[in-house]
Amino acid sequence: MSSSFQRNNALHTVHIAIIVSLSFYRCPYSKFCCRYTGLPRSATNISILTTTQSSIAADLDAFEKAIWFTSSYLIAMSSLAPLMGRLSQVLSARLCMFSSTILMCAGSIVTSTSASFNMFIVGRVLTGAGGAGILIVAIILVIQMTSAKRRGLYIGLANSGMTVGVSLGAVIAGALEPKIGWKPLFGIQAPLSILAGFGLLFSIPANFNEKNNRYKHLTTRNKLARVDYSGAVLLIVTIVLFLLGLSGPRILAIPLILSALALPLFILNEIYIAKEPVIPISVLRSRGTLLTCLATVGFMMARWCVLFYTPVYALAVRDWKPAVAGSILIPTNAGFASGGLLAGIFHIRRDGSFYMHTLISMALFPVTLLILAFISTAHSAWGMYVLMVFCNGALAGASLNYALVHLLHLTRPDVHPIVLSLLATFRGFAGSFGSAIGGGFFGRVLHKSLVDGYAKAGLEDRGDLIRKLLGSPALVGTLKGTEKEVAVRAYEDGLKALFLGGVGLAIIVTLAQASTGWKGPTKEEQIDVEEDVEGEQALVAGS
């Protein structure tokens, strides 16, 4: 590969990363900001709700259902990620990205015109479906279009673009919502998604990866026939049922049981029925791949606790205004960008093992969560809090960079696109699990603390207030006297329990990452993968 070709690919990567982030942006001035200052935004579909949730819940009378505002988006994104990753390989990365932006446009229109909770959730699901294709394909493109020497840098840039969006989404939404309402914040997404879609269509090379694409000689009909739809449906059903069971104020047994029944059906389908599985069994046989993916899920779940609930802390416990509360995400995401970029610029400049670096950064991460658990109070020093969320973000950014390049070392180059798609899918799971499971856990602790607190204070008839407080942290600031004291303490209890849970989870996944090992694939694993790849190529040729 010539140096000029690598430089051109690198420029394409930067262009793609910026436009992908733009497609999530909600600020009415985002087009100009991204064009002239390069401040891309991703994941604001999540963070925007941390400062607008109270207004949406009040307008839709859905205080007790507010957890679904974010969970519905993330569940859709995670559930569809494997299918979108597969479609990008079989069909075209350009078309998958463009189609995803159209879905996001449709979801934004539905969300911004919603007059009921159910319609709002439909819009969020459509938006999440679009987000699945964009995030999965973007990660694959960044890896495939950069050299090993500059791979860490561009991974850091892509992650930085996404994490900048998390910060800006909460801040901008908090500032604009009191002036223009929450609906225009979602409505502006529609035209921006269309513009971003055409930008993606023209920025991604038409012949990208055409040389190594074994499906290039097939018709569209034959390409679509290669997709494992039954496996995709079973995987989607498994994930959705699992998340439904663990979301909300109560754990639901029936969805969890049905999810446990659907999982073995999915595995059997992949082994015995699917000609080209959504998740090839040969890849899952790799200990390094499986454990890295599982560790990534747990690690990012703990990270999402900070992203979801530090603005809630600022709103409910500190009594900050929505725009100011959203700004608490700026230091943690600045840390995330800094950690990833520093690791990529100064260290990740080669192929090979990054075993110890991954473990050290992951082992330090739960220390920051432990400190946050005990300083998330109304009277803690704000400087200490800002420092801890910054350190939390820096360790997360560095850990994800190291874990990704170490995974590439553990697997054969032949299966890197599949492995990357799988890792991206599991990273998507983390957002859903963090929102649904973490949100459900936080909600249960908060509900119990509110009920017990008001009962001890002799204020038993506060059922309607408790219902509203569960979905509106900003409501705490409007309370007075004992009612406010109880509500603040309840939110402190919920946050402490949530962060302590994140500590335990982060320790477990660090041990899982430690079990991945530091050696590359063995000769036996290489032979197994080669046989699987040759078998798939023979099937395609026979089509």
How much of the sequence is in beta strands?
under 5%
* CATH H-level superfamily of the largest domain: MFS general substrate transporter like domains
Number of domains as seen in the coordinates: 2
User: Might you state the CATH topology name of the largest domain?
Assistant: Growth Hormone, Chain: A
Mean pLDDT: 78
Task: Describe the oligomeric state of these chains in a short phrase.
Answer: single chain
What is the structural class? mainly alpha
Spell out the helices and strands N to C. Answer: HHHHHHHHHHHHHHHHHHHHHH
- Taking the alpha carbons of the first and last residues, their distance comes to 32 Å
Radius of gyration, in Å, reads 23 Å
Number of strands: 0
Main CATH class of the largest domain: Mainly Alpha
Helix content class: over 70%
Q: Give the number of helices.
A: 22
The second-level CATH architecture of the largest domain is Up-down Bundle
* Largest sheet data: none
Low-confidence stretches: 1-42, 532-543
3D shape: globular
InterPro entries: MFS, MFS_dom, MFS_trans_sf
Domain Major facilitator superfamily (MFS) profile: 16-489
Subcellular location: Membrane
Protein name: MFS general substrate transporter
